[in-house]
Structure formats: C-alpha cells, structure tokens
Amino acid sequence: MNGFALDRLVPAHVRAFEAYVPSPPDDVLRRRFGIAHLHRLNNNENPLGPPAACREILARWDPRDAALYPQGDGWHLRRALAARFGLDAEQVILGNGANEVIAFVIKAFCEPGDNIVTADRTFAVYEWLASFSGVAPRLVPLRDDGFDDAALLRAIDARTRLLFLCNPNNPTGSWWDHARLARFLDAVDGRCIVVADEAYAEFAEDPDFPDSFALMARHPNLVVFRTFSKMWGLAGLRIGWMAAAPEVAATVRKTSISYSVNLLALEAARAAVWDVEHIAATRAHVGAARARLGALAGRLGLKMVGAIGNFAMLHLPVADTVVHRRLMARGVMARAMTSFRYPGWLRVSFGSDEAMEAFAGALEVVLAEA
Amino acid sequence: MTSEDDAPRLTLPPGVRFAAVGAEFIRGIAAATGIEARLAERMALIAEEVLAASPATAVAVTLALRDRRHAVRLDVVFASAELDLAGLDQSRDRDVEDAAGVGLYLAARLADHLTTEPAGRGGLRLGFDLARAYPARAVPAPPDGLGMPVGTPVDPDDATLALLVDWAEAKGAGGPAFRTAARVLDQRAAGDLFARVALDARRRPVGGLFWQPFGRRLMALAGPALLLPEGPARKALVEALLDSALAGLVRGTVQGLVVLEAAPGMKRADFEVVGHLPDAQGGHPVLFRALEEDPGGITWVAPELRDWVAGMVRRLALGRDIEASPPPARASGAAMAAETDRAAGRVTLRPLLAAADAAEVAEANVALFRGQGFSQMRALLDLGRPEHAGFAQGLLRAGLAPAALIPDAAGDLLLLAATA
Ligand SMILES: Cc1ncc(COP(=O)(O)O)c(C=O)c1O
User: Fold this and answer.
1) Is B221 helix (H, G, I), strand (E, B) or coil?
2) What is the pLDDT of residues A236-266, one digit of tens each?
C-alpha cells in the first residue's frame, strides 16, 4: 500500500488534538501500584448505587433480551421524564451519557469556524468536543471559583453558537440561582444557545436553585442537560438526557443517534424516575461526608471548596499530581486538578464511608511525608 | 513544525548521481529566501553528503529547507526506514574507502543539532539544524522601582518579551535561556519557546518563565527571571508565573515540565525531585511537575539498571510494570544522535537506531566526545522503548550513571550523566 497518506485525510483540528486516555481498569492499576484494593473517589459516582426499583429491574433482567435492540429513542423514559417536569416528550432527547448529548448539540449547531463559550475551569468535555470538531472553545476565567456572567456575555460574538454553563460547576460546586440564570438569559437575548449542564442538579437542596425547565418556556434558547450517572447511580449503564424548547429539540434530534442507549439503561432509568427517597438518602450521605471532609481539611489546614455536588476540592501545599500518585500507592484514587487548571488542588468524590476514611488516612500520611 | 508547511521541497532518487542536484537546490532556495551564504553553503554540503550516502533501499529522498529564524533546518525524509544510519553516528571509526558512510558521518558533524523522527508511511526524517549567530550588544538595565505584578501573567508581545530578556540579562537573572533578546524572539516565532510574563501596573515586565520542547511529550522549564527584590511580591510573582504556565499547557499534548537547571526563586514545593545532575558544586536537583495524572505504565530496563529504576519507582510512587527488555531485532548498525553545546562543553546522546551492538556504539560515542574535549556527558533513554535498553549498558561502562527518572506513563525518560 503506497497511496495511503493518512495525514492527508485527517482534518488539521483532529491532527492537532491529543486523544483522551482514560485510566486503566482497577486490576491493572492495583498491579502497577502494588496495592490490594483501590477506592475510586475520582469520578463522582454514587456509593449508594441505584435506587431500589432499578436494582430490581437489573436483578430480574432476562439475559436472552440481550439479543434484542432497545426501542430506538427511549419512548417510555422520555414520557416519564416529561411528565415529571411538565414537558412534552418531544422536548426530551436521550443519549449514551450526558457526554453523548454534548456531542449531539455541538453537531447540531456548530460548523468549523464557529465557537463555543464556556469557563476555563469546568468540565473538560465541552472544550474537547468543540476542539476536535473544528470549533474554537472560548474559555472565560472563573471569578471567585464561579462562572462570571459579565465576562461570559463579553465573550459572545457573531460566531458563538453555544454557551455551556455548568451549574453546579464541576469541579468547584459553585452555582447560579434562578434569578441569576434568568437575568443572564435576558442579557444573552437569544444570540446563542445556552446550555445549563445540570449533571449535579439533584444534589441541590436550596429552593433558589434554578427551575430551568420553567425558564425554557420564556427562553427557547435554553437547553438543559441531566444525567443518570450521578444521583441515580447508573454511571456504568451510560445514560443521560437533555430537554429543550420543541423547535430546538427537533433540531438536535437530527444529529442524535437512535438506538445508542441500551435496553438495560432505559429500563433502569425509567424505574428511577423520580425516587425521592433515594434522593434524600444520597443527600444525607453527601452532607455527612462533606462535614467530615470539612473537619479533615480544618485539621490539616487545607482550604476546601464545594457547595453543591457529591465532591469537593482541597487545596494542597504540594503538587496535586504528586499527591494523586502517592494516594494511588495507598489505594485511593482522587482527581488531580492541574488538568482542570486548578494546580495544587485535589477533587475528591463523596464515596462510601470506608473509602472516605481510607482517603483521610492516606492523605494525612502523604502530606506528612511531603 | 517540520512536516505540514509549505517549504519548497525536492524529491530525488538516492545515491551519489543526484547529490549535486540536491546541493544546488539548497543553494537556490537559500538565495531565494535570503539565508546567509555561510549557512547556505554548510547546508548544501550536508545535503550533498546525505544524498551521496543514502542507500538504494531509501527509495526516494526528499529535501526541504526552512528558515526557522534562530536556526536553519534541513529536513531529509527517506521514504523507507530500512536504512543503515550508522554513518550518522559520530563515533563510527570510518574506513576511508567506505565513501557512503563517510558522507553521512560528515553531514552529522556539520550540523549543530541532529534529530530523527519517524515520517509518514514507515519513513524516516532527519533534521539538521544550523544555529544563527547573533551579534553581541549592550543591554539596558531595568529601571528602579518596578511595581507589584498586576493581573495574571500574559503571553507577551515581542516588545515586552524583548524588554524582559534585556533586563534579565542585565541583572543576570533567569539563567541562559533569558539571554539575547533577538534569539529569544526568533525561538518563539519558530515555535521552539513559549513564555509567560508578569507585568506591573505600568505594563512593564517584572518577571518571566519560559518553556521549550523536551522529548516527545514534555517541556523544559527555564527561569523564573525575577526582576523584583526579595519579599512577598516576588513570592507571589513566582506562584502566578507557574500557575499561568500550567493553565496554558494543560488539556493538550504536554504531560509534564522538567527543570534541569532551576534558577533561584523557583518554588520547590510545586515540583518533585526526580534525581540529581552532577555539577562543579557537587550536584543539583532535577525537578519535575506532571500536568496529568499518571495512570501507570510499563518501563523497560537493562538488568544493570533494574535496581536503580525500581528504587526510583518506589521513591516516586510510580505505578510501573518493570520489564526486562527483549534483545533488539537488528544484529548491528546501532546509532546515537548527539546534541552538542560547545559553549557549555556538554553533549547529550540519544538512541537513534537500536541494534545488538548498541552497548559498543554508546561506549564509542562517549569516548569520541570526551576525546573532543567535552566535559559534561549526558544521555537520555526512553524507557517506554524496549529496544533502547542496550544503550544503557554501554553508557554505564563508559562511566555514566543514572541521574534522574523523569516520569511519563507512556515512556519514562532516564537521564544519565557523568562529568569528566
Ligand atoms: C458536569 C458534568 N456533565 C456531564 C457529565 C457526563 O455525565 P455522563 O456520565 O452522563 O456522560 C459529567 C460527568 O462527570 C459532569 O461532571
């Protein structure tokens, strides 16, 4: 084969992009780091697992159904979600995780040369998906660890198609309330689609947290993301969703992938809608874990950041990437925040009590050694 | 920066018949693009030697000349990687009858810097660099009363960067990278240097940090150059410079920052010590700062180095499978590339092509450069490449010792060093 010049076939924005490499499976990590057990506190998973009704669905599942395709666009689940939030089922679109929904939206609205606006220190996937789609990410610095409305508005230009607002923000846990989001949407005045990524919304207990589905009626450029990975403990099944005004949803539907959500995920998610007892139990766990982490941070003299969400950040006196590795060697995996543009910070998910204790013990030792 | 641009290029069959054509092409391009005759003539000679020495298995040889401002670069791309590169190895004791070998040997000696990398479709790219000379000039001293840094450090415009370098040079701050403003501007324009500069309220530079490519996935950090007096403002300046460098580098291809010679003021707590380099004062630490989480990886070592590497892996808490390297597939023809810094008396060797005679070749290289009066010998081995282990044995025999293990999950870099 002499005629195959791969470079010629690859767009420059793909060539320039470095592939994301996920961390290896636990058995490989355990071997490499020489540990018997690994507590994962790096992915903001729910240690309580999925709600009881989901477990039952999974336990009763007939493996022979694996041979069948799922229904192609989550008919029942979309209706269940729509009923819960006062929407029309056509306003709801499902994806293989909220990550896939981000891709649908970028594909629907952007072409190379356009830009998206988001923060510099937020969930990385908006920036990545835009970059390898030939769409420029315009990254606005956070102000006081939160999204900066005035600076975001200044960053919007004629080529801005999407603005991603992570609310609450991963990794800072900072958030905008309903009035602030409403004011912001007024100021954007329909110049671009505003995505409120509410992956952690179910952890918000404050009544002032936005009712984005209500805002959508007045602001048809508002798109809301949710996921079953965080509160609902279904991260392994990969299912997330978005809701938008009917004409916006109809546009995104064109670039969405039918059949991409698997059968088990659809059924388990449908059983989860909307188990308030599970929400209460998870919030109680998160609240207790946050209080204990706060006490640890106080004892170690570390600044802690994080208001809403099943995670918080700690500011370390030494490099986070070093602490990450040294924690790994003690069987605990947290998230080093240099890559989130928070050098010197560590993000830790509120895992099981056992994992949190292991983290606390390991962190004390690692910092004492440093 | 070496492949996807529109530099004029010429593809020729390998061998001596077309060597003069290649040389004329280089002279022509140099004349058309205003490259000075002194460099043009040396490059033409290199092109001629390489073409004359290129084996018939090369299929086709492509020449491209580009002005990279602080250096002129000749890229020679062979369509096939099945080449005998021994001629590029400066240590090869050439039989004068072996004309082809002498050609490549001469070409390598003529360049200030030789790099090799795979080219598309199994080919091989040799990059010969000739450095530009910059006239010496008097530099202005920084004014008194530079103020506190204001705002986050910036990617400076040319005038600001030049001013920072001038002032750093006048004060002797920052180290060798912060000298000769014209060269620094050219290095940056060529994509070989990146900078962050902190400004005071009057937008005057008060400090800076540089980084330059180091190996495949790392950057070497230089500085900081600090123009403020000792005190809290200077401490905050150091922190702000590093934070903005890190923020600018993450989420891309760069995995970490190496500091081989830290300038005074670099905050040690932001780095880890990954080894020590010998110097006249008895040694100084090599610092490292990872940008990404290290998920563990494989590190290939020669048996002689296993204990040292295992000790470092433990000390740094790296997740590594330490594996013994399999013997290389080629029986002979191992070669190393050398990067020389004549002013510092330093040479850095890197494996070019692995073969079973790697140890002898490594030893011969060290002997050659010692013989030429180089006092600082260094070598860099990529432990992610199993076939490179053989070089380590020869380097150890020649008196080099492991100095630092620079972590990279895709291939740790082992830095070996010796002083004469
Ligand atoms: C803010 C935010 N959005 C989206 C996602 C992706 O969620 P999913 O698992 O549904 O793809 C995450 C996951 O970490 C997240 O933190």
Assistant:
1) strand
2) 999 999 999 999 999 999 999 999 999 999 9
B290 contacts on A by Cβ (under 8 Å):
319, 321-322, 325, 336, 338
In CATH, B293-420 is 3.30.720: no
Cα(B389)–Cα(B323) distance, integer angstroms: 11
Most confident of A355-369, B82-96, B264-278: A355-369
Q: Which DSSP string corresponds to A221-238?
A: TEEEEEESSSTTS-GGG-
Burial degree of B171 (CB within 10 A; 0-12, 13-18, 19+): middle
Global pTM reads 0.90
Q: Are residues A342 and A265 in the same domain?
A: no
The CATH code belonging to domain B158-290 is 3.40.630.30
Fold assignment, B1-133: Heat Shock Protein 90 (3.30.565)
- The residue-averaged pLDDT of B51-57 equals 77
**What span, in angstroms and rounded, lies between the C-alpha atoms of B90 and A291?**
65
CB neighbourhood size of B256 (10 A): 25
Which of B88, B95, B176, B165 lies closest to B127 in space, CA to CA? Answer: B88
Q: Which residues of B touch A326 (CB under 8 A)?
A: 317
User: Which atom of ligand 1 is closest in space to residue A235's alpha carbon?
Assistant: 9
Positions of chain A with pLDDT lower than 50, given as ranges? 1
Do residue A328 and residue B121 have CB atoms under 8 angstroms apart?
no
